[in-house]
Design goal:
By secondary structure, the protein is mainly alpha-helical. It contains 4 helices and no strands.
Length: 98
């Protein structure tokens, strides 16, 4: 995968993660839903600060790993799958909100 495409996908992954974070906080704070991931649900129960910290740190770390190993096929696949998964999740939020 080219350096330019990798840079775009890493940036997109971070944006999609932030969108997921915001949607999750809005939906859960208004009692419209719960966090589906049991680990992140536990972290969210600890508090919003910890939820944001773990979510941003986790995806930032993964993005860093994807960037460092961008020449490896496994990292490229992992990045593409992550972007796809977050894209589907964000579409789910959009269609359930509208």
């Amino acid at each position: 995968m080219s350096k330019r495409l990798t840079k775009f996908l890493v940036f997109l992954l971070i944006l999609l993660n932030l969108s997921d974070l915001i949607c999750t906080l809005v939906i859960t704070s208004h009692g419209l839903g719960t966090e589906a991931n049991p680990i992140m649900r536990y972290v969210l129960d600890l508090g919003t600060f910890y939820f944001i910290l773990v979510k941003v740190t986790g995806v930032s770390f993964a993005s860093y790993i994807f960037w460092i190993y961008r020449q490896k096929r496994m990292a490229s696949w992992g990045l593409c799958i992550s972007v796809f998964a977050y894209s589907v999740l964000n579409l789910y939020f959009c269609f359930n909100i509208l």
